[in-house]
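Late entry, written up from scratch paper. The run itself happened at the end of the previous shift, but nothing got recorded in the book at the time, so transcribing now.
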Amino acid sequence: MFKFTFKIISMLQVSYIREHQAEVIDRLSKRTNEANSLIEAVLKLDESRRGLQTKVDMISSELNVLSKEIGELFKTGHAQKANEFKQKTTDLKETKATLSEELSTTADALQALLYKIPNLPNAIVPKGVTEADNEEIFSAGTIPTLSQNAMPHWELAKKYDIIDFELGNKITGAGFPVYKGKGARLQRALINYFLDKNTAAGYNEIQVPHLVNEASGFGTGQLPDKEGQMYHVGEDDLYLIPTAEVPATNIFRDVLLQESELPKTLTAYTPCFRREAGSYGAHVRGLNRLHQFDKVEILRVEHPSNSYAALDGMVEHIKSILEELKLPYRILKLCAGDLGFTAALTYDFEVFSTAQDRWLEISSVSNFETFQANRLKLRFKNTEGKSELAHTLNGSSLALPRVLAGILENYQTDEGIQIPEVLIPYTGFSIIN
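Output as recorded:
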């Protein structure tokens, strides 16, 4: 279902943009109306940078020649001529310094512009500008028929005293809930279940820092694109992580792997912190949108020729989890306008909330191709001994708040909230009442 052919390219490297200008503009146009002007600006800065670099290199070469000639002139007693050449070298050094400063400024401007350009969508990404243009490609599970007394999860949480939103608001603010009793145990059970499923599938569990430096944010593309959505610790210039993807992927920053070491597969549980824009209404009530939430992530570093097969495998893995939880779900292929800044292709998983009569996003699974690797300088040495950019992928497996919301709402009965059978060994109880 997810198979297709694709061309491996080094995303947003200037050399590729220069050699494939029309293709880059065409693909980028799926995401932004400014594609043409952005790429023209990149090429103009790159032309200027290369021209300045050529001039600097020529002066450096001339200075090397003059240096040797001056030495020979002094040796042969031609001091006056040597001093004339010395004056020429002084003038050339001043010109070189001026050009070098201009070169540095131009290179920085080029780099800053490249950081603002999103990844190129894969050829199969649908055109569109909003989530309404996303394509549903798969659905499974039976939507339960609830009693007339069915409640949304925020009312169930209050009824059974398992999540306290008001207490979290008192301690911190809106979007920071307090999990209590069986609610806390169910939360912990989900984390352990997700990690066990991921490690059984071959992902290596790690624990990572919950704060990262600026270089890590730039490496995975959260900076500068999502700077306003991240919590910043100003005194230490650190950022609270929006997802385990950031610290886990940065493990491989400035790393040269051997081809035989691929793939690299990791899973990690972390709390996640996001300063998302506030709004009102049922669609953001309760667990639907939080500033702090728990998530288990899976991540892969792949050979470019295998990354889309790996993406299919990640999708199938998450499907197996949702089928064990027996939650009704669907998979969407995101359109270009709804695609994340760093992604070339993304599949979203959504669980149906029967009590809210709406779909809740619970996972995004993405292939970034070489976009992050180019920023991270993440390479591998292929069988020919040449250095090549790797492909990076990641996905939520899974984000807890909306999975928990789906369980509370879809498993509610008049007697209480049933626990999915697969979770009972982790919770130690079969019902919340």
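The CA atoms of residues 86 and 168 lie 73 Å apart.
(Scratch paper discarded after transcription.)
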